[in-house]
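Re: Re: token formats

Sure, here are both.
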Amino acid sequence: MQEVYSYNQELFNRISPIADNLFKTNSLYLVKLKKWQMIEHLVELFGKFFPEEMRAIKEEDLTRRIDKILVLEAVSGTLNDLTPEQIKIFDEAVEGKLRE
């Protein structure tokens, strides 16, 4: 059990500064996401890797992966925030693109 805690702490120590930097540089994340909740989610996601696999991921690759996850999380509910009129405009624009 101590090994699981230790690995989770290792993941947190590695992921947290990356997430902090990404949140500082992307206002979308600040508006749409809760930083600590996302860090916990990222630790859980990356905790599915074996420790050796996780340690082999280079810092820039890990940053890129975390950034992609944050983007996905931030935009996943965007359509839910639209008014009915905005949804109609969006639907019409998509239909126009499909016909082209």
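Second one below.
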Amino acid sequence: MPHLLRLPRDLESRLERLSRQTGLSKGDLIERCVSDGVAELEAHLLLESAGTARPERSIDQLLRESGLGA
């Protein structure tokens, strides 16, 4: 699925230079950057959301309900 992507001139120059140096097309390089970036963003957001998850019941409540707490 093609997309139109506008890049600043300095980034376009860096991408062209990297394409020449590696022999990879600019499209391949952009696809790799997006894929790596999305994977990193997913990991970051999953870690962030895991830290904010709150249990529905407190540990004290769970212990009382199980008969192990006071």
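The chain has three helices and no strands. The helical segments are 9-22, 26-52, 59-66.
- S.
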